[in-house]
Structure formats: C-alpha cells, structure tokens
Amino acid sequence: MVDPSTPPVAPLHIGPVVVDPPLLQAPMAGYTNYAYRQVVREFGGAGLLATEMIAARSATWLETKRGEHPDRLWGVRDEPRPLAVQMWDNDPDNLACVGRRLARDFRVSVVDLNFGCPVRQVTEKAHSGSWLLRDPDRVGEIVRRVVEACGDVPVTAKIRLGCADSCRTALEVAQRIEEAGAACLTVHGRVAAQFFKGRADWEAIAAVKRSVSRMPVVGNGDIDSAQTAVDRLRESGVDGVMIAREALARPWIFAQAAALLRGAVPPADPSLDEQRAIVLHHYELVCARFGVERGTLLMRKFACAYAQGLPGARDFRGRVSRVTTREEFLEVVRTTFPREPVVAAG
Fold first, then answer.
1. For the segment 130-167, what is each residue's pLDDT rounded down to a tens digit?
2. What pTM does this model have?
3. Cβ distance 225 to 253 under 8 Å?
4. In the chain, where are the structural domains located?
5. What is 12-262's CATH topology?
6. Which helix (H) or strand (E) holds 88?
7. What is the Cα–Cα distance from 26 to 254, expressed in whole angstroms?
C-alpha cells in the first residue's frame, strides 16, 4: 500500500544515466565484486551499483589484454546496467588512459574517481585517495583530464570532508570538481584522519551541496537502516544517498529504502533461516568464479558481515573465520549461524 501523502523523490541524473531510485551501492575494496552485486540485484532497490576500486597504475593489463580483469572487473562486460567503476591514482595520464578504456571497451555507465580513500597504502605510500584533498587544483586537473578522455560517459568523484579537521577542503574541492566537468559528486561525512570513527557530519555534506550550482551531490556515511537513508535524503537536501557497510550485512536494505521512498510498506528483513540460505547462495556464486578453495577463504569475511548484530554472532564469526574447506564452511553455517529463538509451548 502506498501512502499518497509521501512527497515524491526525484531520480538522480548523472549525465545521461538515470539513477532511480537515488540509492547507490558504495564501492568497497574486497567486497563489492560481481557475486555481491548479483545478490544486491536479486533483492532490488539499488539505483546504481559499483565495482571494487581499481588501481589505475597497476592496470597495464588494459593496454595489453583484451579480456576482463581477473578479479575486480570480473563480470563487468556482460553485467546489467547502470554500473559504475571506481578507480584511484594521482597521475592524470594513467587515469585518463584507464578511464578511456572503461568507457569505450567495457562500456561502463559511470567512471568514478576516488579522492576519499583513507587507507595508508593509498594515501601515504601512493599519495592518492584522500591525500589529494590537500590540493584542490590538482584534483580539478585530474577530473578534467578524465572527463575529456571518457567522452559521453559521465565522470563522477568521491571525496571526504578533508584530510583532517585542520585541513577541511571539501567546499573548494567540490567547486574544482564541478568546474572540471564532473557529472556528480559523492561526499563521505568524515575527514580522512577519522577513518570510520566518530559520526558522519551530514551538516557538512549539506554545506557541500549548497556550495555547488549544477552538479548533483550524493551523501554517504552512517546509513544504518532504510529509514536513516530516507531521512538523510530528505533532510540534507542531497540528490542521492550511498550505502556502504550496512549493505554488507543487509543487502536487502536498498529494497526497503526504495519502498519507503515510494511511500510503501518496506519488506521485512528475511528470517534467520532465509538469511542462512542467502549466505549459502552467496557462497555458491563466489565459488563458481574463484573455485572452492579460494572461494571458501574469500567467503569467510562475507559470512561474518551477514551475522553482524545478530544473536550468537560472536560464536559464529569465531568459527567461520577459521574454516578452510567447503565441508567446514557448510557445517559451520548449518550449525552455528544464528537461529530464530525457540518459543516454549505454554
């Protein structure tokens, strides 16, 4: 049933790409591979999905091989659209080269540039990701070069509020990104020095939205429920919401938020028995790509994420994080994944 009093939410337009509903799945390294995206698609509700972040400087395979990347671009050529691919580097030439191939050869819907990653391997060692936020002009130049290289395929960017509280550059960086021709900007409401500690500052995200004139802005950070996603979208004035960590535990969150945006009753969380079946389905998708041995090891972190916040999750995570064979994985999921409480007969 739809509530007619619920105000409609406009789709998000990223250049020619229509994101409807304006709910985006965040790119997360090590997690948002093809198998995970397939699970999200099966539940529905996400307007735009994204791959894991790829490193442009190590992507020389794009110039030497015509096949798909063995891991992070697995499935991209034949995957349903719309689909975004995110990449990082600090070299405009590398990024322009890889962006051009993603647009022309892989025919992705959106090419996204990461200026928000706080991981030291990306920032301190490679002077990329959120490290670049200290130099708004350089960010703008990178965006301009990639926009030129990608032709009709829209280029977007993701940033944080700055490198640290003493270096909050988001407003200036957003203006440079808009001037360079980006089609959309996603803002995570923390500085890089926070990593994921503290609370996301949605007032600061709203300020970034007000600082630009034509470029749509997507907010990201601490979306821990479908209702929170809807509230942040309506209260902050952003054009879309990106959901990250909560979607690893609850890939059905997009369908729930999409229903709320329509004024409809959201679908209930799957029962614990249904969630166990989802874990096993996800496992089969991973093994189909990577083989049983590697797939079992890769699936351990996903299984831990699915159990987050459930009763008995600690025991399950401790056991599933040590499995090494298919038999062990199936047995641990069967016997220790949280179950519905047994109600004693009166």
1. 999 999 999 999 999 999 999 999 999 999 999 999 99
2. 0.93
3. yes
4. 12-262, 272-336
5. TIM Barrel (3.20.20)
6. strand 83-88
7. 12
